[in-house]
Design goal:
Chain A is α/β, with parallel strands linked by helices and about 525 residues long. Chain A is about 35% helix and about 25% strand. Chain A has a six-stranded mixed beta sheet with strand order 6-7-8-3-9-10, sandwiched between helices. A six-stranded mixed beta sheet of chain A has the order 16-17-18-13-19-20, sandwiched between helices. Chain C has 14 helices and two strands. The chains are: A alpha/beta (about 525), B mainly alpha (about 375), C mainly alpha (about 325). Chains in contact: A-B, A-C, B-C. Chains A and C meet through α2 and α4 of A and α8 and α9 of C.
């Protein structure tokens, strides 16, 4: 069928958010009646691209063609009118509504609901029959398991007559069996002429479900492959790219006694889903342990547990003589007293208070301690002196402690937070995403500070989604996937390919060995 | 186009414009009842500060506004909205009354007054602590609970005054008068000791206590580790948890302090002026505290200034209603409502105007520099 | 027996009369809050409406013009609330408080300026009021025991608004649960983002909710001053707007349970008035305040989760901001 125009064609899509260039001249063409995967690391620009297609953002430049016709998509309404539907990673469902009500919302046929609901009931019945998308139409969405909620999202999209479905990381919330089921549904949809676009970072799913795959990296489209003609290893390489290894001269590490031990840590979220599963970690004084992994695999929760922000559901943490478990939790203040410092991943949420001046941010968490605080009163002068000291040593600019914390650039905020935490000479230092949102110039500086702290005998745990960062810093690398530690590699022996496969949980020791000449 | 506004516009000009807008509307209302607003302003100013007794009255009203303004502001800093100032003030007065009625025959004045002030704080704090506890540990909404507690306080007071504390043989629901030991000295009496004569007014030592409270709140919020934690929680609860703050306990602590401050209205009114327990002495000061805090930008200095303004309005308004019967004292309540509206709910509604204005100014200066550069 | 019936009819018809403004305000508040907007300002809207209704009726002599004016002013205040909270994303509680305080002052300022009666409006003649309706057959049934009283004084004998209020409850229920508008309204109070993503305007939905709230509170105000009473008096709402808010919460933001709460609170009030100074055998004199305070206490207990859970609409109080 050479003359059928592609279902979707994107031409030179460009989109920037301030200084971040999220999509650079992205072009792609998706055949009708296919399942197409778009794969890439976090921040590669896949979600932005699909949000542009669905009208959530508008591209700075470029063109969108649907069935060969140029269209302007300025809002989801336009996208729906063009037959495009999106299943968001975070469901747009109303928990207190029934399935039927959720499906009908925004697509009612008249002012009185009854006819709309009756029509939707019939349509759901039909869709259920044809695609195996069965959901009880009268159940409250909030009572449904996540996998069925996702089906409701798909039903919503189909009910609106979409012929092109975009699914954003649909398996993130599913078990492997549920994922299989989802793929069968997607294949049924494709076989009846629908076009499916699957955004994911999981290689295994791409291999299992798609016909064609596009690989994105750093906002650009770097490759297009027929799924049959490629393999996980090639895709992993394309995804990660041949990165220049960050040059960081660091002396060999002299790991000493364990400073922090996590034993079989488990954590369940509000729905009872395990987000951390049997995690064992030991961090010794004088070493940097890196945690690699695609974001959303439990790293954030792990940091929160280790920092005392959340108590583990099972297992325990041991620091010195203190054992912390569900029955004997410790709050962040106690953790600090035990010699643990924490540079959180999300500094805006945890590490600073936007309207506070830098002076105040520079003592956050240590505000009870001398010399900042006496028995009753805080010593502003000591705080300000401390802050200018930190600014001096960590090259925070502008060097003005009286400015609002939010008025500093990301890199300078991070340097200030890092300075605050290292300055206390902690026994243990947790660092989440050390250089997220930090300009290139500051990255090396921050890395060097971490190594210096290590050499001073600090036990450091670094969590980062930047693989090259983990490889540059860590003496030992652990890889997380699905709330578990799925691999461990010595820092010096680490190579990107192995780590990439581990991160996608498709690594098999024998296959890897076979690959090595 | 939408560049951020200069700092002085954000924290200086916009709030002032908001207050001015409120007063423009007040002027229109005054016009609507057939009075020349400028005449009204003149009478009010003379009535508020034109002679010593007037100043006394103005400062007496100011005292109440300071207490409730501080109460609301302190809760705001913790990210909590305390609408219960009215009830907390009521209970504070009850605390004062109970202590003095029980002990005014036995204790010396200084001790009695200290105990009464303490009781005001404790009762006010307790009345705020319950809604705080319910929000922190049971998840109920503090705004609704504090509103409900205002009504419960009013009912409790009516019951106690009518059935328990009423003076024997009295027709109106008032307690017996306190003995002299239970009087907070009037300022005019104190000045008389010092040889200065001042006309009689209800102004009493509570204003000194209010000033001390301002200093206390300022020191507490900006110079103690607990104030640091309280503000951290108000701006960013997650950061507070990260910093090791127990945010449930901090919620209760913040509301207790807020309630205690509101309770001090009872000191000014019951211990300072009425010298007996009466009904309805809170007269809306609790709600007015919201206006004071919003106008004073939640800072003690701003609160003192806003309280002075409201004190002048209260006293000047009384004079005004005396001179011009067409205007009633409730005009002050109207002004409070408008201030809350313009400085609170509509605080950002003039912002687009300023953004457009400064955008245009910037564009013009940009053009001239560009033109200058091109010429060069 | 006859006496007990008489007593019951008296109490129940008093309950209805007291509950009427509560029901109207609670249904208004329900629309607003189900759309995600906290409405502390029920009290203020009702008070303003009561004043304007009485003022207009006394000047024009027309009860209907009074009602119209009451609705207009309540709508104006509702729009002010919407303007502050929907358009400018102001704090909803602050806006409600502002309206309440503003109105409590304005009604007196204008009342004194226009009528010079200490904030009262002149007493209205029956032609300028909504008078109790005598149902057909009342005369004929008057002498029938039990039924006569029930027909004449409990079912009949109320003014128009009482029936309107009772009618509004099923209408509210129907609109919320059975219409497209109701579905979208409930959705916008839960997950406005989902409504926006479905291509529906969040702001316009919420403005409509606020307007309905204005309509109902306007009627409630008119009821107070030109139906139940024959004039406006200072602070005549006396916290009933807050009781209505409590009843709505007590009814867990649902029409019929909220009606139940309004009737219960109305009954408490009717009983409290009856019990004033009466010694109940075995208990002694029950303080009126004890009964009057029950609605508030019960609401606090409910909110604290001690008797069931009142789950507010999820998006309530949060201004909706598009991400871009």
């Amino acid at each position: 069928m050479p003359d059928t125009p592609p279902a979707i064609e994107l031409r030179s899509i460009d989109k920037s958010f301030g200084p971040v260039h999220a999509n650079r001249g992205v072009s792609l063409s998706i055949a009708r009646g296919s399942i197409t995967g778009i794969i890439g690391e976090n921040g590669a620009g896949k979600s932005t691209l699909m949000s542009i297609l669905y009208g959530l953002y508008e591209a700075d430049s470029g063109a969108i063609l649907v069935d060969g016709q140029p269209v302007r998509i300025k809002s989801p309404r336009d996208a729906i009118a063009s037959g495009i539907g999106m299943v968001h990673q975070h469901f747009m469902l109303i928990d207190t509504f029934t399935v039927l009500e959720n499906v009908v919302l925004g697509a009612e046929t008249g002012a009185v609901l009854r006819p709309s609901l009756a029509a939707a009931r019939q349509e759901l019945e039909r869709l259920g029959r044809e695609y195996g998308l069965r959901v009880n139409p009268d159940a409250l969405v909030g009572d449904l398991p996540v996998s069925e909620q996702q089906r409701v999202e798909i039903l919503k999209v189909l009910y609106r007559g979409a012929r092109i479905l975009i699914l954003d990381e649909p398996s993130a919330v599913l078990t492997p069996q549920e994922t299989e089921q989802l793929f069968r549904i997607l294949q049924a949809l494709r076989d009846r002429g629908a076009t499916v676009i699957l955004i994911t970072h999981k290689l295994r799913e791409i291999m299992a479900a798609t016909d064609t795959v596009f690989v994105m990296r750093h906002g650009q489209m770097v490759a297009e492959r027929q799924t049959k003609a490629t393999n996980s290893e090639e895709l992993a390489e394309l995804m990660v790219g041949r990165k220049v290894r960050l040059a960081l001269d660091k002396p060999a590490c002299h790991a000493e006694a364990p400073a922090l031990t996590a034993e079989r840590i488990g954590l369940r979220d509000g729905r009872g889903v395990a987000v951390l599963d049997n995690i064992d970690i030991t961090v010794r004084a004088g070493e940097i342990v890196g945690i690699a992994g695609v974001s959303g695999n439990g790293q954030s929760e792990l940091l929160e547990v280790l920092a005392g922000i959340r108590a583990p559901t099972t297992g325990r943490l041991v620091i010195g003589d203190r054992a912390i478990d569900a029955a004997h939790p410790a709050d962040p203040a106690e953790m600090r007293a035990l010699g643990l410092a924490h540079v959180p991943e999300d500094r805006h949420r945890y590490a600073m208070v936007a309207p506070f001046d830098a002076t105040e941010t520079s003592v956050l968490g240590y505000h009870h301690e001398p010399p900042f605080s006496g028995r009753y009163l805080m010593d502003r002068r000591a705080m300000a002196g401390h802050c200018s000291n930190l600014m001096e040593h960590y090259d925070v600019r502008p060097r003005r402690p009286e400015l609002r914390s939010s008025s500093f650039s990301g890199g300078n905020q991070q340097k200030l937070v890092l300075a605050r935490e290292i300055a206390t000479k902690p026994k243990i230092l947790l660092v989440g995403q050390p250089t997220r949102g930090v300009d290139i110039g500051a990255i090396e500086f921050i890395h060097r500070q971490l190594v210096a702290a290590r050499d001073a005998g600090c036990a450091i745990l670094v969590v980062s989604v930047e693989l090259d960062e983990v490889m540059a810093l860590a003496d030992r690398i652990l890889v997380m996937y699905g709330g578990q530690i799925v691999g461990e590699v010595e820092g010096s022996a680490a190579d990107e390919r192995t780590l990439g496969l581990m991160m996608a949980n498709v690594w098999r020791p024998d296959a890897a060995k076979a690959g090595v000449p | 186009m939408k560049a951020p506004l200069p700092g002085w516009v954000d924290i200086g000009l916009i709030p002032v414009v908001n207050v001015l807008l409120a007063f423009v509307v007040v002027g229109l209302i005054v016009l609507a009842v057939g009075v020349n607003p400028f005449t009204a302003v003149r009478i009010m100013i003379v009535g508020a500060v034109g002679y010593p007794e007037a100043i006394g009255y103005t400062l007496y009203y100011t005292t109440n506004f300071i207490f409730t303004g501080l109460a609301v502001a302190l809760a705001f800093h913790a990210g909590l909205f305390n609408i219960g100032g009215e009830g907390q003030a009521y209970l504070g007065g009850l605390g004062v009354g109970l202590v003095v009625l029980a002990l005014d025959a036995t204790l010396p004045p200084v001790l009695l007054i200290a105990l009464a002030v303490l009781a005001a704080a404790l009762f006010g704090a307790a009345w705020a602590a319950i809604p705080a506890y319910l929000q922190a540990y049971r998840g109920s909404h503090i705004v609704i609970t504090t509103i409900m507690f205002n009504f419960i306080a009013a009912a409790v007071m009516v019951y106690l005054m009518v059935n328990v504390l009423i003076a024997p043989g009295s027709m109106s629901p008032e307690s017996r008068a306190f003995a002299d030991a239970g009087h907070l000295p009037f300022i005019h009496d104190l000045l008389a000791y010092a040889g200065i004569t001042m006309g009689q007014s209800p102004l009493n030592l509570a204003i000194v206590w209010a000033a001390l409270c301002c200093v206390f709140v300022w020191v507490f919020l900006w110079h103690t580790p607990w104030g640091f934690e309280l503000r951290t929680m108000g701006h960013n609860p997650s950061a507070a948890i990260y910093a090791g703050v127990d945010i449930r306990r901090m919620t209760v602590l913040a509301m207790c302090l807020s309630g205690a401050l509101a309770g001090f209205v009872g000191v000014n009114e019951i211990l300072g002026v009425h010298h007996r327990l009466i009904l309805n002495f809170t007269a809306g000061y609790g709600f007015a505290g919201i206006a004071v805090a919003l106008m004073g930008r939640n800072h003690p200095v701003g609160i003192v200034l806003a309280s002075l303004l409201f004190g002048m309005l209260q006293q000047g308004g009384a004079e005004l209603s005396f001179d011009i019967p067409a205007i009633t004292r409730e005009m002050v309540v109207v002004i409070q409502g408008l201030i809350i509206l313009f400085c609170g709910a509509l605080a950002h509604f003039t912002r687009p105007w300023f953004e457009a204005l400064f955008g245009a100014l910037r564009a013009r200066s940009g053009r001239t520099t560009a033109a200058g550069a091109a010429e060069a | 027996m006859e006496e007990a019936i008489t007593f019951a009819v008296l109490i129940l018809s008093a309950t209805l009369r007291v509950a009427t403004p509560l029901i109207l305000c609670a249904m208004g508040g329900l629309f607003s809050e189900r759309s995600g907007l906290i409405d502390i300002g029920l009290e203020g809207k009702m008070l303003a409406a009561a004043f304007v209704a009485a003022a207009t009726a006394s000047v024009t002599g027309s009860a209907w013009l009074g009602l119209g004016a009451a609705i207009l002013v309540a709508e104006a205040l509702a729009l002010l609330h919407g303007f502050a909270c929907i358009t400018h994303r102001g704090n909803q509680v602050v806006s409600g408080v502002a309206i309440n305080i503003l109105v409590s002052g304005l009604t007196i300022v204008f009342g004194m300026a226009w009528f010079q009666r200490g904030g009262q409006t002149p007493a209205l003649p029956p032609e300028a009021r909504f008078m109790p309706i005598t149902l057909p057959g009342t005369q004929a049934l008057a002498d029938v025991p039990v039924l006569g009283r029930i027909w004449g004084d409990l079912i009949g004998g109320h003014n128009l608004f009482v029936y309107v209020a009772l009618l509004i409850v099923p209408i509210t229920w129907w609109v919320l649960t059975r219409t497209r508008f109701g579905l979208r309204l409930r959705a916008v109070g839960e997950v406005p983002l989902a409504v926006d993503a479905a291509g529906i305007s969040v702001a316009w939905l919420r403005y409509r909710a606020v307007l309905i709230c204005g309509l109902f509170t306007g009627i409630a105000g008119a009821y107070l001053s030109i139906a139940q009473n024959a004039a406006f008096s200072r602070d005549m709402t006396a916290g009933q707007g807050y009781i209505a808010l409590a009843a709505m919460i007590f009814g867990k933001w649902r029409p019929f349970p909220a009606l139940g709460a309004c009737l219960m609170f109305g009954l408490l009030d009717a009983v409290a008035i009856r019990l004033q100074g009466v010694r109940v055998p075995g208990i002694g004199e029950v303080p009126v305040q004890f009964i009057q305070v029950l609605p508030y206490v019960l609401t606090v207990i409910l909110l604290a989760g001690f008797i069931g859970r009142a789950v507010a609409p999820k998006a309530i109080g949060v201004p909706y901001e598009k991400e871009h």
